């Protein structure tokens, strides 16, 4: 049976990890050989001022281990953070798949999830404009299943052979290793401008999806079309989705830039703290199911990873829920050493011929060999399945398993034929018997040649503010490109997506959209190919807008785990603070008192109140909303940092509440522009002298992006 929570509420995987957990509390310090150490302060010397002796095995062991502490970072997705949890299916999916972890709604399957950015190095900022990795390892009773996805449902390229080119283009440029964790440079846009197939993905990456508010507030996607296979060996096509129960939310670009400086660990910290505070992040697993007979029914190819299946065509069925409820104990042992692989599947799930997926099936095992250094990386505690492993794989660096017996081959008679193969009825994996009758050919199917229709669909599906953010992002990114011909090529491609989009970007760059995109448009073609045959196909999407593509339509009914700043000073109204705090915390939000200095403040009723952060140690960009109680406006108005705090929160379109003379702080800030001529302030997220409920409603809206129409960036 899959794991049921043990007495302590842990999963099978938690139990499996127990023997490897080391706690030094109340223990003697020892060498790696278990010898108790008497002096860890001084090396062994010939006389107290003499040379250190080579004989000092304690010194040598310690320094040698230190010298080898680093392993290569992931070539992509180096920056990441992870958490433990479990997955539970809502009802049996037996009709579609025999995968055991998708049968029993009472069973909890342990998971380990790693989120990441793609381009930056291990120490880079969390808030880079980038795709986020969303990799889930399910420790099922039939072995590990890895769903190695992203927070964007499509990819830049259609064929794995282009992946090294894409990554070389986006990584810092090779001559000077600049810029870090950024796509805003020539090599990236040079490549992209020659790859029209990337246009759909570019729309997503230039949208606010690429700067999430929190890892807990982003969707996940399996990207490729996979297969479900049931007991009768019938297959259906599947797209995997993760839908966050907190909704899909992002920060503003200006915020992202500031957070990158003030707290580059913002997402990592947010996930860690949410879990420590018991605000466990949750996602529903969704699937789009397409019967085999419908494979060719769509105006795009199901095998093309630059396409989504619009939810209007095939709805997403929510089939289960994942909860992350435990932080790793050790970053290196777990988060760094976890090794995902899209090729880790279990009976009931299978691949399709998506050429990007097919290439990935090679890459992940291969990369672990150099990153983790041995074919035995599956024995590392975080990677090993919760079911036993028996096979004839032997030896290699760092082998942990002590295999008994002399027969390490199959068939054998000496070992009684063991370990033996499992029949399908016994859970043995058997690949889906897809019929293939083909000529070997190095080509791309012409059904992959529509590069623009879904880019247009995405752009058209965005709200006005979202469209403006895409335009701004493109102006910024292309503005950082030095070579003008690259900018012009990009404008040509953008005009194929949307003329107005291209014109607005061009205006920001001081250029004109070229009358005709530079031909041939597709450089991703074989040397001998006829360029005419490789021109992108122009297809008009049967769907003009898709609600699911806009974050404006996401869940906006909760403030769970949101961070609210309360600006206070000596004299602040403690009753108002307590009332607001209680109401916000009852809805699951977290509050912090921010004041001109650290320590304690004396409230209106003479009480001592602990200050959590000062204006120096904190910033409005770390919060979702701001509250200014009355009582201390005279002090706060003397603090330029307090006024800036409110101005910035206002310009970043956040909800702001104030009571009594607290309103004066808003009047001294940029919010004043709205207050002078607006009688519906609540709609604008400004909640003055109102009950907490109104503030709670405003925070749940996440942002009032319309405010940007007047003023975009903080003073
Ligand atoms: Fe990956 N990718 N990838 N990728 N990928 C890696 O494997 C690769 C792609 C994704 O948190 C590497 O262990 C190729 C798509 C995630 O540890 C490497 C291609 C999607 C992670 C690799 C792709 C992903 C990786 C680097 C094109 C979304 C981080 C380190 C054919 C569906 C997993 C490693 C973690 C990591 C190769 C494209 C997701 C080199 C060749 C598409 C979330 O093997």
UniProtKB/TrEMBL annotation:
PANTHER family: CATALASE (PTHR42821), CATALASE-B (PTHR42821:SF1). Residues 30-418 form the Catalase core domain. It is an enzyme of class 1 (oxidoreductase). InterPro entries: Catalase (IPR018028), Catalase_AS (IPR024708), Catalase_clade2 (IPR024712), Catalase_clade2_helical (IPR043156), Catalase_core (IPR011614), Catalase_haem_BS (IPR002226), Catalase_immune_responsive (IPR010582), Catalase_large_C (IPR041399). The keyword Iron applies. Belongs to the catalase family. HPII subfamily. Its cofactor is heme. Residues 1-23 are annotated as: Disordered. It catalyses: 2 H2O2 = O2 + 2 H2O. Keywords: Heme, Hydrogen peroxide, Iron, Metal-binding, Oxidoreductase, Peroxidase. GO terms for molecular function: catalase activity. Decomposes hydrogen peroxide into water and oxygen; serves to protect cells from the toxic effects of hydrogen peroxide. Its EC number is 1.11.1.6. This is Catalase.
